[in-house]
Amino acid sequence: xxxxxxxxxxxxxxxxxxxxxxxxxxxxxxxxxxxxxxxxxxxxxxxxxxxxxxxxxxxxxxxxxxxxxxxxxxxxxxxxxxxxxxxxxxxxxxxxxxxxxxxxxxxxxxxxxxxxxxxxxxxxxxxxxxxxxxxxxxxxxxxxxxxxxxxxxxxxxxxxxxxxxxxxx
Length: 169
Fold this sequence. Notes:
The chain is mainly beta and 169 residues long.
């Protein structure tokens, strides 16, 4: 089974077994729908849990699991990664991509000259995310993930075309 990380358990909340999660998903309402299965990455490996309740408190998802309605049963999961099965991933509109789809792509300019490899997609507090690209010498640079800079993403060829703009590279 392939897993996709959707968050991290950062703490417990209250006494009834709720876990506070730092989310890496744009689909929390879908991911944590009652009855859905999520997986916690624990020392013993991936462990499945069925969602019992979900709500948002102060900007964080609070989730409880079936048969774990007590703080003493869930404290051990603080710091664990939260995952879904890859087959449960939502389809995105054309032109939108998940982070893990972009990471590892070969970055080239419009003439096809290699620029490096996308090593991370970084959130900003602004309007767009940035692509962190590492060139063959190990130097890194950021590219705003907007159409003015990102010309084309080709997942089949594992390539992303970046427009060279003076001062960018």
